[in-house]
Amino acid sequence: MTVLLLGFEHFLEYDENPTDLLVRQLHGKSVNGHPVVGVTLPVDYSEIEGKILAAIEAAKPALVVGFGLAAGRDKVTPEKVALNYINSKMKDNSGRSLEGVPIAPGEPAAFFTNVPVEALVGELNRESIPASLSLSAGAYLCNYTMYVCLREARASGFRAGFIHVPCHAEWVAKSGKQLPSLPLATIVKAAECAVSYLLGNGAS
Q1: Active-site pick, 49, 164, 167, 193
Q2: Residue-level pLDDT at 198
Q3: Arithmetic mean of pLDDT, 56-64
Q4: Angle at 170 between CA 89 and CA 185, to 5 degrees
Q5: Across residues 127-152, what is the average pLDDT?
Q6: Catalytic: 164?
Q7: Residue 145 in contact with residue 79, Cβ under 8 Å?
Q8: What average pLDDT is seen over the chain?
Q9: What is the pLDDT of residue 201?
Q10: What span, in angstroms and rounded, lies between the C-alpha atoms of 183 and 6?
Q11: Percentage of the chain with pLDDT > 70?
Q12: Catalytic residue among 49, 79, 123, 152
């Protein structure tokens, strides 16, 4: 079973994105004997869906896990639901912002993840990784990615989830910003633990 991991490139003032670093580190490795494909997505409304669909088509995964940066959060936060909604003043990397529009007009208003995120939170905490459940993936490109992945999961039969992570401590130290953080090694460990757990546990 192939595992597809999705991260994001730099955006706004975050010139180093821990999710880009983690998918690069895990790309080409295996978890529980299953190959991992890591793909870094563009922070661009006009490109992101096509990149997601191409990555899914190429990998034909059994499990897709997206990762996004949630600067300001102090824990790893698996997401429960994605909304068919974009509403953010933050610009993408092409300079575009969208407010109050659907991702996919006429499609379902929301999708719940089909992986057991409540149990995953418990597993991460048992592995000494601070984690809690999140009921909002926001309304920017992370939520967009989660929505597209869950829509495709229902059409194709794979499992899919999305996990937000804090800033990585190494970047916070260099930037001088006052933000909660975790070491990059801990963030990568969280990703590996999540994939390992989800491969061994069924749908929620």
Answers
A1: 164
A2: 98
A3: 98
A4: 105
A5: 98
A6: yes
A7: no
A8: 97
A9: 86
A10: 20
A11: 99
A12: 79
Indicate the pTM of the whole model.
0.97
Instruction: Pick the catalytic residue from 49, 123, 142, 192.
Output: 142
**Other CB atoms within 10 Å distance of the CB of residue 196:** 16
Three-state secondary structure call for residue 190:
helix
Asked if 87 and 139 count as a contact pair (C-beta separation under 8 A), the reply is yes
Find where tokens 């070491």 sit.
183
Cβ pair 4, 56 in contact under 8 A: yes
pLDDT tens string 154-191 = 999 999 999 999 999 999 999 999 999 999 999 999 99
Alpha carbon distances (Å) from 64 to 96, 112, 200: 27, 14, 14
* Residue 177 token pair: 């910003």
Domains and CATH numbers, the chain: 3-200 (3.40.630.20)
User: Which residue, among 203, 112, 200, 196, has the nearest Cα to 162 in the 3D structure?
Assistant: 112
Q: Is 79 a catalytic residue?
A: yes
Exposure string for 123-160, b = 16+ CB within 10 A, e = fewer: bbeebebbbeebeebbbbbbbbbbbbbbbbbeeeebbb
